[in-house]
Specification:
Helix content: 25-40%
Strand order of the largest sheet: 1-2
Protein name: Ferredoxin
Number of helices: 8
Largest sheet: 2 strands, parallel
Radius of gyration: 29 Å
InterPro entries: 4Fe-4S_dom, 4Fe4S_Ferredoxin_RnfB, Fe_hydrogenase, Fe_hydrogenase_lsu_C
Keywords: 4Fe-4S, Iron, Iron-sulfur, Metal-binding
Distance between the termini: 59 Å
Number of strands: 2
Organism: Candidatus Acutalibacter pullistercoris
GO molecular function: 4 iron, 4 sulfur cluster binding; metal ion binding
Strand content: under 5%
Length: 237
């Protein structure tokens, strides 16, 4: 895995909060209204468009299903699709210190006393930070290989390797599902040990092997005299 470690925001935030309490002057970066604050929950971005032709989904499994249906052209007549991998939206993400349900209730109360919007672009140009620097390019990620026989072989390998994983779809490997990670392995983009369960299993097997080897070796002689092959000891030895 390319992940060296993980630090919980719950460990970092108290240290930052302590420092922020001692700031003499705080300059707000921006002021948000109901629309801006609503972006933190699923459907908030879509609601800001003031249209009912949108779809909002949250949770990685639901996001995958929606994308598959979009690809199969089973979803249409939409102007905007909002997809959040985190359950409930950003409020349910890893950077939320508070319980996500408590935070969502707090946001609902906050929105009640805010104006609709406090930030407007006006008639001026769109800020450069909001523009695309490069054009969008299509990436055919679903094609395993241009060779049909090779693609079929890779599909068989994906099914076989996926059975070695626990099927929890925990995402610790960086892939959304165990099957997606199996595909990464077959494509050569990752190793099976990127799954913490496979890695732990291999480490346990290695430890068991070393333990069996150690128990079978017995006690090594210190020198030839213990085996009776050395010279007879002299007087006083």
């Amino acid at each position: 895995s390319m992940v060296d470690g993980a630090i919980a925001i719950s460990e970092v935030f108290p240290m930052l909060s302590h420092k922020m309490d001692h700031l003499e002057k705080v300059e707000p970066m921006a002021n948000s209204g109901i629309i801006g604050v609503g972006w933190s929950t699923s459907g908030g971005e879509a609601a800001a468009l003031l249209t009912d032709k949108y779809l909002a989904a949250d949770g990685i499994e639901n996001v995958i299903r929606v994308l598959e249906e979009v690809e199969d052209e089973r979803i249409g007549d939409l102007e905007f699709i909002e997809l959040n991998a985190c359950a409930g939206g950003c409020v349910g993400g890893v950077l939320c210190v508070e319980n996500p349900y408590v935070a969502k209730a707090r946001i609902q109360r906050l929105r009640k006393y805010l104006p609709v919007s406090q930030n407007h672009l006006g008639d001026g140009p769109i800020p450069p930070v909001m523009e695309w620097e490069e054009g969008l390019e299509f990436s055919n990620v679903l094609t395993l290989s241009d060779d049909l026989a090779e693609a079929m072989r890779m599909m068989v390998d994906i099914d076989r390797i996926a059975k070695e994983f626990p099927g929890l779809d925990c995402g610790a490997c960086g892939a959304p599902t165990c099957r997606a990670f199996a595909e990464d392995v077959v494509r050569g983009n990752s190793q099976k040990t990127g799954c913490i369960f496979v890695y732990r299993r291999q480490m346990q097997q290695m430890a068991d092997t070393l333990s069996q080897m150690g128990s079978g070796l017995g006690r090594f002689p210190k020198d030839d005299r213990e085996q009776g092959r050395g010279p007879a000891p002299k007087n006083g030895e």
